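Table S2 (text version). Query chain:
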Amino acid sequence: MFEILRSIDWSDHLPAMPAGSVALVGAGPGDPSLISLRGAIRILQADTIVYDALANEALLRLGAPQAERIYVGKRAGVHKMGQEQINDLLVDLAKTGKRVARLKGGDPLIFGRGSEEAERLRQAGLPFEIVPGITAAAGAAAYAGIPLTDRRFTSTLAFVTGHEDPTKEESAIDYAALARLGSIVLYMGLRTLGGHAAALIRAGMDPATPAAVVSRATLPRQKAVTCTLVEIAGRAEAAGIEAPALTLIGGAVSLREQINWFERLPLFGRTVVVTRTRHQASELAAQLTALGAEVIEAPTIDLAPGDEAAIDEALSDLRSYQWLIVTSVNGVAALVEAMRRHGLDARALGHVRIGAIGSATADALRQHFLKADVVPESFTAEDLAEALRRADDFCGRKVLLFRADIARPALTDTLRSLGAECTECSAYRILKPAALPQELLEALQAGRVDWITFTSSSTFQNLRELLGDDEKQLRDVKLASIGPITSQTIRTAGLEPTVEASPYTVDALVRAIVEYEKGA
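Corresponding structure-token output:
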């Protein structure tokens, strides 16, 4: 999703903020895909992003690589920076000419103190705008399957803070008025929930009124409990509900059993690790996230440019080749980049027949007006070799192979045995990262990882090496393999893949995980 947003020139639709201005952006309730389009554009355009604890850090990836990112904390009881300091920071940044995106969890003007920041900017004579966000109440209600209003139960709704200004001499909450309303949403106040519930009951609300507490709303680790108003505080504590959380009270809470959709997604509550390169991880991560999984992106391979001199030499003699073999999407990218350097386009390959491993590789070729002549039904080098053998008499044929530097020799060996003259170009190099993300190491240590996906043998081998002494943790995790070659690599290490994709594609890999979970 973020890649698509970055690829669009938004200036015709929404001009950039003036230099020296601030956008107070509602970051939504947690799920980064719930950011508004205007909010996303302001993050893209910002020189500096100031964010608090309730803004999903995934949104920071929307910002320009050179944009400054400043964390200001702001979670109940723990403040990295006080509100007055944040106000001053925004003013100081804007005065230096920066375009500032101030990310605030939920909506800036609903218990977000956005008004205080806006007032301070106005007093300093600085331009600002306020970008609404999906407030936590709306997000939690939708993802927990609890309507905020329903004509069968209520036509009135109140948002109430459970954490008032501590300098107030007495509470400003009118419990008697609230007790007469149909739906109440209590923000924050988890530690004082019992007192709020008791006050509502004393004010006349039925102790049996349905109530729910929702924690980490809209995220894969969302947790919710429902019961009656009189029981809710004790039930939330017994369930280990933690902040950030909010409480929904009213008859419409009873509809949760019928319309709770998020927690019924097939991978809800599962933590899945994606080991693909960072620029390739988005497709797999997006599918898993849409199915309810918490995704940890932990690339175990990096890509680097291949042998540029060898590639240039091969392209300068392109007319002499009868076949071009591309074994991956990365190979296609390297080929297209090399052709661009030489001022070539698809016409330069008009005389060449093309073989490709996998539908994804064939699709990548099509995006550049190149059609693969041979794509085997099974996506391995051996299957491509057999399909090529059936497609042509390779005796005396010149074949150019664009592939990874560590590609297996099976394809080349077969073609040479058929009499082909093969030129291998290391289109790209596969490297091992220096370390694994701390997020993955902590999740493995806590036993919180359910699945690890492997889309090549290299992703598995590098993970084992990077884990070192912690490799034994893989024995307690389900392993998902893209195909038989990767599966064999896993078995050679003494482990067994839980599932194997068929066909050997990302889509099939996801389906295999879902089918396993359905039968578990």
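Notes on Table S2: The longest strand covers residues 421-431. The CA atoms of residues 337 and 344 lie 10 Å apart.
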